[in-house]
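[Discussion] Sanity-checking designs against the backbone

I'm trying to build intuition for which residues belong where. Below is a C-alpha cell string of 117 positions. I'd appreciate it if someone posts a full sequence so I can compare it with mine line by line.
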C-alpha cells in the first residue's frame, strides 16, 4: 500500500514538472523582443530577430514618439508615455526605422530566416 502511494506521488510530481517545463517554453517563445524608447533613444539601437518574431517598442520618455520604417513597412501612431507598439516581421531583411517627430532617433531591426527555411 505504501509503495503504491509513493509511486502515485512521484508520478504526480513528474507530471507537474513536465507541465511547468512546457509552460516555460511556451512563455519563452511568446516573449518576443523589446525596444525601449527613453531619453530620445531607441535601446537597443539594433536587434536581430528571426522571421515570424514580434518586436514591441515601449515609450518610457515623457514626450510622444513614433516608430516609423524608412520604407513605410510599419508605422506607429504617436506613443505617449508607457504606450506600446508591436510589429511582427514576416520577411527576412534589414529594417531601418526612426521617430517621425524626432528624426535623429534611429534604429535597425535585422530579420534572419527562421530555422529550417
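Best answer:
Here's mine. Compare freely.
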Amino acid at each position: 500500500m505504501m509503495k503504491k502511494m509513493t509511486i502515485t506521488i512521484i508520478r504526480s510530481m513528474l507530471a507537474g514538472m513536465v507541465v511547468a517545463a512546457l509552460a516555460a517554453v511556451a512563455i519563452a517563445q511568446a516573449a518576443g523582443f523589446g525596444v525601449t524608447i527613453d531619453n530620445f533613444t531607441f535601446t537597443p539601437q539594433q536587434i536581430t530577430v528571426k522571421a515570424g518574431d514580434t518586436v514591441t517598442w515601449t515609450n518610457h520618455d515623457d514626450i510622444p514618439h513614433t516608430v516609423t520604417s524608412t520604407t513605410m513597412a510599419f508605422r506607429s501612431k504617436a506613443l505617449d508615455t508607457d504606450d506600446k507598439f508591436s510589429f511582427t516581421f514576416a520577411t527576412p531583411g534589414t529594417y531601418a526605422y526612426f521617430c517621425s517627430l524626432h528624426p535623429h532617433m534611429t534604429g535597425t531591426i535585422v530579420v534572419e530566416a527562421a530555422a529550417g527555411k
